[in-house]
Amino acid sequence: MVRIHRRLPVWSGFLMLNTLIGLCSYSLAQVPATTSRPASTTPAAGVTTAETKVATAATPAIPSAYINPDTVKAGPFDMGKMWTFDNPPKDYFRKTYNFNADEKWFDEARLASLRFADYCSASFVSSNGLVMTNHHCARESGTGVQRKGEDLNATGFFAKTPAEERKVEGLFVDQLVKIEDITNRVQQAMGGTGAGSEQAQLQAREQAFNTIKQEYATKEGWQGLELQTITFYNGGRYALYGFKRYNDVRLVFMPELQLGFFGGDPDNFTYPRYALDCSFFRVYDNGKPLQTTHYFKFNTNGVRDGEPIFVIGNPGRTERLKTVAELEYDRDLQVPFTLQLLRNRSTALQAYNATAKNDSILNEIFSLENSYKAYTGQLAGLRDPYLMARKAAFEKQFQTDARAKNVSADRLTLWDDLTTSTTQLRSVFAASNYLAPSERIMGELLTFANVLMQYGELSISRPEAAESARSLVVAPKLRNRALEEAYLAAHLAEAQTGLGSDDPYVRAALNGRSPKEAAAYLISNTKLADPAFIKDLAVRPQAIRSSDDPLLALARIGFSRYVTAARQARQLFQTQEVLRGQLGRLLYDVYGTSIPPDATFSLRINDGVVRGYAYNGTKAPIFTTFAGLYDRNYSFADKAPWNLPARWKNPPAELLRQPMCFISTNDIIGGNSGSPMINKNLEAVGLVFDGNMESLPGEFIFVPDLNRSISVHAGGMIAAMRYIYKADRLIKELVGTTPATPAKK
């Protein structure tokens, strides 16, 4: 399931108070959480550490003893193939595939493609505004329209008539209709190297963005559009995008959860794969289905081995321009701690949902598990000495090519400057992450204790600010006490591992107890959930500093350390952001558009070919069939997550022969979920929904040898509609009056 990992939210009151004192929280809430290497290598009781959990997955593909960094060369596409529509790769497509894609071809591809809300991709697939995206992108929208007595996760949904199509409140799709290069204006506003502090440069950039958007909002051809500034090459280039937003979006078809997410987390990021991860919506305009000439016609005859194929979508984020020093930092610190947080919070939510049975919690668990598996694969790549040697080789070649371009000497120090700032970040990460106030890190009550400490500090340093923030000081309403204890216990165990058992914060928190025992004690003895107690503190903030409440006492020890470390981290992040922008500008100056920029959840087109690969001592086929779905179901005795709904239990023989999923060498990442897979004729032949395990290092390097994108076959979608769902109305719209029988291979 290739979907953007949504970073866990910080408590809203804490964000508001941060604004008042100008402090950013550098925790998992805003950037992937990181830490220094644990002071203790012994996992705390009852808590799984990322270091032990991913040990097997992170075994290097090639033993380091056999790697000679001096002989490893960078690959031609290590930086990927996420081409922009600002500079479409016409010459590259012609040379590589003997395919003359002209401006009209790229315009049609762009206008038929969509951004689905703010987290997925989609496309028009009929002239009547029919939209195709993944089931896992639509899961929340689909369940949001279910009515009393319905369970659309269990039954799926199909609107047999137009009147039955259900509007999803709050859902929108965006179509990119205007592009403008604004690089010169933004870079001039920021100034050159040394033009003010990093903070001043970033503020100047944001001001330039706002000025440009205000100007274009009244410009002919741009009026009424959703305007967004897009950053390429970490600031090497900038663009203004204008989107036509459609707010009336209605659900048409969605399979059952067991089909859309068949195999669940065990099959996630694997291949061969058997998931009907598709759904269909319709855009309405003035109460009627949108009439559009820009859409991808369905081609159910599918794909051939070696055929060129193209993905159009909105990849969320890659960091392939990161230096080796930054990647080592991710490998040693950032990713292991992120994994630890994801695993422990998912475990807590699963225990909670065993009794709560809440769909929104289930979706949150899916997201955490999806992210955990993705970060596991990323860490495996970071620990692969061959891949890291390739990154080092690219860095070395980049420096050589920059010198050949006679760039100024000060620009060649960027790598050293980034190494210096990265080293400094290592020294502050323990305090700025383990002590970061966030309800998803330490639970609601201890987070609130930190908010109160901040409020108390404001009452002394800035009484007027504290007065305006008083309305935010409200006792939190716990979702569930057991869940609160689980989050706090996880936080205390992680702090014990990361800060060390002798750390003052850890000693005060545990006081001779285990993390689980300490969490139970602290929550049993705090008054922070008592509205009367909090109301008194709100009007007497000076009492916060002397209160004997155990959570407030703990926050008094940790909060000041966090503030100091977070301020240092903020400055270092600002420094790195400016340095990365300068490095991106250098990359563009040296290589131009021959190297595409990192993903930024902006519309891209990437190319690949349909191709199998070696795996598990054998070879993966280019496509799977419905027969494989039933084999997997039978092999696991119809047990979750390989169980099937009743209507799937006795399939017609013809269905078993139909293709279901297929693979290609395309370059995708989270955010590409729901992207159409098209051929040279602008026909939809598939729907991207995942990558294989070998694709997970794609966050920092693209290696097409074993990297594969996984798509639902267009013929497979039609076959399911035809033989199982009897969705004749939808089949007719997609492929014509007589449904085409998918080709047999």
UniProtKB/TrEMBL annotation:
Its EC number is 3.4.14.-. Keywords: Aminopeptidase, Hydrolase, Protease, Serine protease, Signal. Pfam families: Peptidase_S46. The keyword Glycosyltransferase does not apply. GO terms for molecular function: dipeptidyl-peptidase activity; serine-type aminopeptidase activity. One of its GO terms (biological process) is proteolysis. It comes from the Bacteria. The keyword Hydrolase applies. Transmembrane segments: none annotated. PANTHER family: PERIPLASMIC PEPTIDASE SUBFAMILY S1B. Belongs to the peptidase S46 family. Catalyzes the removal of dipeptides from the N-terminus of oligopeptides. This is Dipeptidyl-peptidase.
